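step 3/5: co-fold with adenosine-5'-triphosphate
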Amino acid sequence: LVRLLGPLQGLSNVRIDVMTALVSFERVFEVLDLPSLVQERPDAVALPRSASRLTFDHVSFHYPRADEVSLASLETVARPESADSGQVLTDVSFVAEPGQMVALVGPSGAGKSTITHLVARLYDVSEGQVSVDGHDVRAVTLQSLEDAVGYVTQDAHMFHDTIGANLRYARPGASDEQVWAALEAAQVAELVRHLPDGLDTVVGDRGYRLSGGERQRLAIARLLLKAPSIVVLDEATAHLDSESEAAVQRALDAALRGRTSLVIAHRLSTVRNADLILVVEDGRIVQRGTHAELIATGGLYLDLYRTQFNTQPTEDSWTSA
Ligand code: ATP
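step 4/5: write tokens
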């Protein structure tokens, strides 16, 4: 714990967004000694590890307002400017079937990240229900929910610690073999093998400087080690060189295979391969369907598609969807 607290001490003023970026490090609220915004019910049951059908049922949500947050330590979590702001999500419903990939697209500030925050119950919904395999997330233990859901965010954080320790935050007690298998699948074993201290190489602010693509692949290795049944992924917008991009893509393919995923999509390949695309605008789902269906419908999706990918739908984008 001391090792965890060291690098985290400077983080006590961070907003929830940053904390969610760290969620894959497990029980970050506990580590920061901040009370979680959600409470475990006394009668909470453990969510089965294999649970993987994710349902949003008429979910509406507003971030906790300052007056709803009585604890001084949480003032930084509830943004002051959000005190009089309204609903962030309105009547959001969708189902991600086991193994499916659901992509979220939409303008900045539409509510995509907020939807992903509700999956791991970082906040409670204001109305409606988020459930996994029919279990309302408010009725299951926080630990079992955390075990079931893995996050990979754009800016994969690494603690100032060894690569081995950074990976084992996801699964304490993992053997070296398991760690190496995860590194292999995440396309980053070769790199670690060539570092002078291998798994014992210290990374992070004052350690070995990882490139963005390397950090992402290590974060994916951490996810593979955790082996959650649901993956929430915020795809990187940052430009990676094409070799790194291809390696990250292969790592992600391994990480998402056989898992339910909810992806904030920035890649063309993701929207094309998604089983379901949800177009979010002003906190509502305004369009839904596959890439081919949405291109055919026109409207916001087509506009976003053109701007984001700077491309016209071609014959190829129709057929490969
Ligand atoms: P982007 O693509 O820019 O990341 P997004 O679609 O993910 O945007 P969200 O980050 O979910 O959108 O934001 C939806 C709305 O909720 C915005 O108006 C945002 O300002 C607000 N919001 C986000 N996080 C918080 C927070 N912690 N407290 C209060 N309001 C928030």
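step 5/5: annotate
Residues 6 and 187 are 29 Å apart (CA to CA).
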